[in-house]
Amino acid sequence: MEIYQATIEDLEGVSDLFNLYRIFYQQPSDLEGAKTYIKNRLESKDSVILVVKDKQEYVAFTQLYPTFSSISMQRVWILNDLYVDAEARNRGIGEMLLHKTKDFAIKTGAKSISLESAPDNYVAQRLYEKNGYKKDSQFYHFDLDLAE
């Protein structure tokens, strides 16, 4: 099993996983849209995608977006997407991705990694807490939906 930063050569495999990830979050399947989105991210280098392959099969990915903390004046990575294919679950792959993400964040001088989880995604929450992530009780999270 190998974990590495995806390049344009990984477009097909990552796009397939990204489409499955979106389906998991009740979005309609849109493989062409997923491919366009991932291609744009890889070409513009505005996100970092870590991918897991097992015997040449793409089994998981995580996508990180950079931001900054004005208070600490340091980089922060937003772990926006993490997905392990259903056939590859319960093998520790999600935890391996979290470790690789942490290593990457440390190497890039980041202050922290931030993520969100659906309130009912207890499996993911347990994984995050097991790996040192703490639920924020200091700040509220607000969104402004511009599509409305």
Number of DSSP E strands: 5
Tell me the name of the CATH class. Answer: Alpha Beta
Largest beta sheet, briefly? 5 strands, mixed
Instruction: Give the proportion of residues in helices.
Output: 25-40%
Report the C-alpha radius of gyration, rounded.
15 Å
CATH topology: Aminopeptidase
CATH homologous superfamily label = Gcn5-related N-acetyltransferase (GNAT)
Q: How many alpha or pi helices?
A: 4
Which geometry do the CA atoms define? globular
CATH-scheme architecture: 3-Layer(aba) Sandwich
Name the strands of the widest sheet in spatial order.
1-2-3-4-5
Order of helices and strands: EHHEEEHEH
Through-space gap between termini: 43 Å
Strand residue percentage: 25-35%
Protein name: GNAT family N-acetyltransferase
GO molecular function, one term: acyltransferase activity, transferring groups other than amino-acyl groups
Domain N-acetyltransferase: 1-148
Keywords: Acyltransferase, Transferase
